[in-house]
Structures are given as structure tokens and as C-alpha cells.
Amino acid sequence: MDNSNNPIFTAVSSSVRQVSLLLRCIGFSPKAEVQITTDGLRFSVEESRAVQGLAFLERSLFSSYTFNAASDTATSSPNETTSSPSFQINLIALLETLQIFGLSDATHSSSRNPNGGFTSPYAHNAFNTPALAATGGTCRMSYPYLGAPLSITISEAGVTTTCNLNTYESSTDAGFDVDESIPLQRDALTLKIIMRSTWLYDAITELASTNPTMLILTASGHTTPLFALEGAGGPFGDSVVDFQPEPSRTPKSGLSSNETGKDEQARAPWVSETFTVLPGSGTRGTIRQRYKFAHIQKAARAMDLASKVCIRCDSQGVMSLQFMIELSRDGIGVGPARDAERLNGGGAGGAAAARVSFVDFRFVPLVDEEDDEDGSDKENESFCVDMNGSTASGQ
């Protein structure tokens, strides 16, 4: 069964920092489901079937990427997701391996911040560890055959380290994508908002000061508040962040075509690039969903690093936060501040050199009496199609 001459998967990355950065965004669980596809690697972690983190390492992040689908299955269609091998891996061990040469901030381990992770560990300084270790170095990943360890070889400055990480049988059914654990019904969306991630990050940070137990999301296409986040159940009372409507009375292109065109209906939160609330999605077209605040905090690292976020809710209340993270040539994440700096004063070709990756979080709502929480999972779409299509017009 050893296919070492023709391994299932091999890939080489010239920037370990990029890979480590993306995987640390979902590092709230010790084990991750990994799926190898022709387009890249899908990593999925979850907790109590209530929150799920998804990171997709596109093949464009690697200088070399080889996937031999025929090595692990008898089917002759390598593009089919059913022929994509999947396995479990210890995510903490993987992250420690990737930072073996100090590619991550030494003051932060791979375990999550007990305070919610709202202090960014990615402050960019010419003398900090990530900046000194970001140049040079390569990472080679290899998965020879089904059940074999995942081999990771990291080389830098003439020093080479090889780690073989044990893999475990996947807990998902054969043929299923790893991102189907908490399905988002894209054909039954009730809310879609695209905004800069820093606005959401600041709002969650503000709400966290009262130590709430619940996050209540309210959105409406015609009544105020158009979009509000409330932290409830904390020992210091409740707090609300209300995203005010834009001052202009001109309708925004992102509004739902079903709206009637009244002044109040034509307005959207001024921080949003796209704002769509489908009528009939709640009482008088108003959406109100409750989520566990501690679950939302698990997305704080991605929230801090991302340039934009796409907030979506479906008819069952499942919420998706899809973050667009920009990666520069040296592998350091470009957050909102550095993104603006690059656009304003970056050299020629700087924008073209940046790469875009996506990290997705999904949250199951807290159950109301009238809610019928039954998770029908009939959904299999490409990971970042919505954000790709929307951000092109948003810029």
C-alpha cells in the first residue's frame, strides 16, 4: 500500500508564515479535519457541533502543488470531491511544527487566548520575531498514502527539520466535504452584509467589556435599527452597538431588489458595502438571532487580521462570518491598517503582489421556543464564491 514513488500529495511553500497565519485563525480546537483537493487543502475544526472554523489553503499559496487522486482511489475522475482523501490531524502539533523556527509570535502559544483573543498577536515591528523570520525558508508537505503520517520538512538558513505528524481516520463520511458539518443554506439566505472587518472587530471588542453570554444580531431592511449587535446576559448589564444608516438618501446598489424604494428602506448602514435583508425572513422582515458570545470570540483572530468580512444568515439562523485575509509577499498578514497604507503609499505592483485567502466561521443559533432546529445538510458549493463575487464590485 506504500506509494512512496507517487505520493498522494506533495506541496512546497516558500512562506511558512502564510500557512501558519491562516491555520492559527481556526486554532480553537485541538484536532482538525483535513481534506486534500485539486484546488488546495481544506482545514475544518469544530466545537460541540455549535461553532465551526474553516480555512482553505489554495494551491496558489504554494510554489509547487501536486495531488495524485488516482493514488488513493480507484475512480478515474480526480476532480470529483468524492475522490479527495481526508483525515484528522492534531492541529496544535501542526502549528507548533510550523513555528519551530520562531515564525510565530513567541509570546503567544498555539492555544487560544482565554480572554477571547482580542489583543492582536500580529503587531508588525522590525525587531519582533515574525519580522526577523519571515524572509527565506521553505516548507514541504507530503502525504504518501492513506493512513501515512503527514510529513513536514522546514528548511531555513541551512537548517532542516522534518516532522512526521500522525494522521487519524476522518470522522466525516466518505465523499463528504469537511465544511458540511454546519451547513449554510446559500439558496435560503435571509441576510448578507459585506463590510470592513475592523468595524465588526471593534464592535465585538466593545461588547466584550460587559462579559456577555449572548450576542443578539438584529437586522432590518426598512426599520431602525438596520443593523445592531447586542451583548446580553453579562454581570455588568447589556450593551448595544448600533450601526447607523448612511446619511445619503441615495439607494445603495447592495439593497434587495424587493424593497419598495421608500427613503427608510433605501438606506443601509454606512459601514456596509453590501446590505441585503430579504423580506419575510422574520417578523415584518426583521431578523433577530441569538448566538453564544463565547463562540463568536473564537473568530477574533481572523476578525482582527481580515480586510473584509461577509456576514450571512440562512433561514434556520445559521450564521457565517467569512473573512478575506490579504497576504503580502513576505507572508505577513495585511490587516485593515496595513492594507490602507499599502494602497496609499505602496510601491508599484504592491497591490498585485498581495494574495487573498478566506477563513469561514459558522455558528448555530441559540434555540427559541418557536425555532425548529433540525439541520438538513444539502449543500456543497465552492468555499469562497460569494466573497469573490461581491468584493470585486465593492472595490
TrEMBL record:
GO terms for cellular component: checkpoint clamp complex. It comes from the Eukaryota. GO terms for biological process: DNA damage checkpoint signaling; DNA repair. Its main location: nucleus. Keywords: DNA damage, DNA repair, Nucleus. InterPro entries: Rad1_Rec1_Rad17. The keyword ATP-binding does not apply. Residues 250-259 have a biased composition (Polar residues). It is found in: Nucleus. Residues 241-266, 369-395 are annotated as: Disordered. Belongs to the rad1 family. PANTHER family: CELL CYCLE CHECKPOINT PROTEIN RAD1 (PTHR10870:SF0). This is DNA repair protein rad1. The lineage of its organism: Eukaryota, Fungi, Dikarya, Ascomycota, Pezizomycotina.
